[in-house]
């Protein structure tokens, strides 16, 4: 029996008004894949990621998570999810880390981490609290459990947000430019956590500008340009001699 | 200064305090529940419900409370179906009419205050909740409502204080609350200054207590905005 991909995205298209942001994106992530999605601003990377968990609804195309297709219907001339219940259940299986952390400001870090497991997955609180402490320790902020987000640095907040996503025991982690809003000196601590996750075999889809991460941590790199996947391959292929001219030009900007 | 008269006046007025407090407590709590229903209609996404809520808010904010109260008290009795209806034993009571009109009016104002609170909730935090699989009532209960309440509280506490003062209008539909009793006392004694002074003091003390309670609640809901204790700082 062929292995079911953790994530399979087929021919996603999305327009905002007259502007076609995604022009047919397909991508597959297998168990343990760490895929870096690179591309210039405006190439549609973030929109693509947000279409996977339906924070944006694609105009057409399919999303499959662990062999389950998100059912869509045409309603009022627009593509919409057929069942909010299914969307909720798929989202619970996908961990999302945002560029600006998006922690719930009125809750402590611990409350942020246990919120999903307790209220969405309806698991016993004591168990979730125990796991949350372990997760916070793992991302290096074990002593911040009772602090509020506003009391933490950006890097600490982002690590808390990663712990919050992990607490749902997701099948796949989506990272939307997780280090772009951070001061340069705080980027390293977040990347170290992400690297550790990758080494544990977490399946990850990472939209990023961190070339080092794409090259050294991910096992596949996708380069997006003008709403399409321009090229995709292993880091060796992508950063080697056979790279596409457009990608070579793109990474050229980073070596200035 | 006639201390003896002042203190006997105070005692008489304080006997009416339970009526004032009952008017206040009932109308604020019924009004609050009603406001939640209206704000849900207003922002729920259904065009017709939103239109109804807009109309409701406009009518009850746009017309004087006293006239609303007169309409309920004198107006309802003109309709046969109300006079013969099952609720008539309740609706013919001045106290019930006063509570009803106070609650209907504050619901309009409070709905707008709550809507302002909801609009202030950072969209990012709502998005994060959606991303872990929250939607519908769970999302409202766990994320939107607590944050919105914090933003709405300062304006809402003003509304609650206004309600305490508005209960005095009930005297005009023959409810014997503090202001009504004060007026009756004046008609017997002609000592306007002292009697109304005593009444004003009662309202001031009541509102002082209300504002203190609101400030305490606001303090409690703002824990996350205060500076971290030195030990917890990075």
From TrEMBL, chain A:
Q: Which residues form the ABC transporter domain?
A: 7-251
What Gene3D superfamilies has UniProt attached to this entry?
P-loop containing nucleotide triphosphate hydrolases
Give the main localization category: membrane
GO molecular function annotation: ATP binding
The answer, when asked if Flavoprotein is one of the entry's keywords, is no
Q: Which domain of life is it from?
A: Bacteria
Could you tell me where this protein is found in the cell?
A: Cell membrane
What membrane topology is annotated for this entry?
Peripheral membrane protein
- InterPro entries (alphabetical): AAA+_ATPase, ABC_ATPase_HisP-typ, ABC_transporter-like_ATP-bd, ABC_transporter-like_CS, MetN_ABC_transporter-like, P-loop_NTPase
**Does the keyword field hold Nucleotide-binding?**
yes
Keyword annotations from UniProtKB, A to Z: ATP-binding, Cell membrane, Membrane, Nucleotide-binding, Transport
Q: Which Pfam families match?
A: ABC_tran (PF00005)
**PANTHER family xrefs:** AMINO ACID IMPORT ATP-BINDING PROTEIN (PTHR43166), L-CYSTINE IMPORT ATP-BINDING PROTEIN TCYN (PTHR43166:SF35)
Q: Which family does it belong to?
A: Belongs to the ABC transporter superfamily.
Q: Write down what this protein is called.
A: ATP-binding cassette domain-containing protein
Automatic annotation (TrEMBL), chain B:
* Entry protein name: ABC transporter permease subunit
Which PROSITE patterns does the entry mention? ABC_TM1 (PS50928)
What subcellular compartments does it reside in? Cell inner membrane; Cell membrane
Cited CDD domains: TM_PBP2 (cd06261)
Sorted alphabetically, the keyword list is:
Cell inner membrane, Cell membrane, Membrane, Transmembrane, Transmembrane helix, Transport
Coarse class of the protein's main subcellular location: membrane
Family that this chain belongs to? Belongs to the binding-protein-dependent transport system permease family. HisMQ subfamily.
Segments traversing the membrane = 20-43, 55-77, 89-110, 193-217
Q: How does it sit in the membrane?
A: Multi-pass membrane protein
Q: Does the keyword Metal-binding apply?
A: no
Q: What species does this protein belong to?
A: Ollibium composti
- What SUPFAM superfamilies does its record include? MetI-like
- The residues covered by the ABC transmembrane type-1 domain are 13-214
* InterPro entries in the cross-refs: AA_ABC_transptr_permease_3TM (IPR010065), ArtM/GltK/GlnP/TcyL/YhdX-like (IPR043429), MetI-like (IPR000515), MetI-like_sf (IPR035906)
Question: NCBIfam families given for it?
Answer: HEQRo_perm_3TM
């Amino acid at each position: 029996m062929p292995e079911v991909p953790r994530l399979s995205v087929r021919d996603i298209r999305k327009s905002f008004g007259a502007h076609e942001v995604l022009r047919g994106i397909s991508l597959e992530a297998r168990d343990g894949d760490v895929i870096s999605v690179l591309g210039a601003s405006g190439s549609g990377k973030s929109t693509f990621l947000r279409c996977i968990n339906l924070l944006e609804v694609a105009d057409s195309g399919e999303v499959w998570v662990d062999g389950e297709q998100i059912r869509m219907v045409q309603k009022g001339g627009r593509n919409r999810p057929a069942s909010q219940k299914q969307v909720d259940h798929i989202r619970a299986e996908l961990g999302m880390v945002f560029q600006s952390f998006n922690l719930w400001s009125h809750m402590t870090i611990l409350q942020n981490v246990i919120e999903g497991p307790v209220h969405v997955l309806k698991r016993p609180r004591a168990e979730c609290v125990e796991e949350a402490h372990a997760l916070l320790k793992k991302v290096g902020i074990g002593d911040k459990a009772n602090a509020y987000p506003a009391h933490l640095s950006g890097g600490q907040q982002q690590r808390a947000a990663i712990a919050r996503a992990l607490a749902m025991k997701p099948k796949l982690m989506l990272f939307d430019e997780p280090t772009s809003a951070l001061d340069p000196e705080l980027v390293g601590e977040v990347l170290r956590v992400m690297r550790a996750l990758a080494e544990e075999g977490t399946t990850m889809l990472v939209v990023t500008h961190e070339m080092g991460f794409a090259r050294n941590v991910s096992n596949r790199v996708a380069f997006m340009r003008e709403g399409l996947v321009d090229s995709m391959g292993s880091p060796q292929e992508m950063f080697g001699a056979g790279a596409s001219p457009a990608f070579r030009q793109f990474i050229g900007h980073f070596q200035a | 200064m006639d201390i003896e008269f002042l203190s006997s006046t105070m005692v008489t007025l304080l006997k009416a305090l339970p009526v004032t407090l009952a008017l206040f407590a009932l109308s604020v709590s019924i009004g609050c529940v009603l406001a939640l229903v209206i704000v849900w209609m207003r922002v729920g996404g259904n065009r017709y419900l939103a239109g109804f809520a807009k109309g409701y808010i406009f009518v009850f904010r746009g017309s004087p409370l006293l006239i609303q109260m007169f309409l309920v008290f004198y107006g309802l009795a003109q309709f046969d179906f109300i006079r013969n209806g099952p609720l008539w034993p309740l609706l013919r009571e001045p106290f019930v009419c006063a509570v009803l009109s106070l609650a209907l009016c504050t619901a309009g104002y409070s709905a707008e205050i709550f809507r302002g609170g909801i609009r202030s909730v950072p969209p990012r935090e709502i998005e994060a909740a959606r991303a872990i699989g929250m939607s519908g009532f769970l999302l409202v209960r766990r994320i939107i409502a607590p944050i919105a309440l914090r933003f709405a509280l300062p304006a809402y506490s003003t509304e609650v204080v206004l309600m305490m003062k508005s209960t005095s209008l009930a005297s005009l539909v023959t409810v014997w609350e503090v202001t009504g009793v004060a007026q009756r006392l004046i008609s017997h004694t002609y000592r306007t200054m002292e009697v109304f002074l005593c009444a004003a003091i009662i309202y001031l003390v009541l509102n002082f207590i209300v504002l203190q309670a609101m400030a305490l609640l606001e303090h409690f809901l703002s824990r996350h905005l205060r500076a971290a204790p030195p030990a917890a700082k990075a």
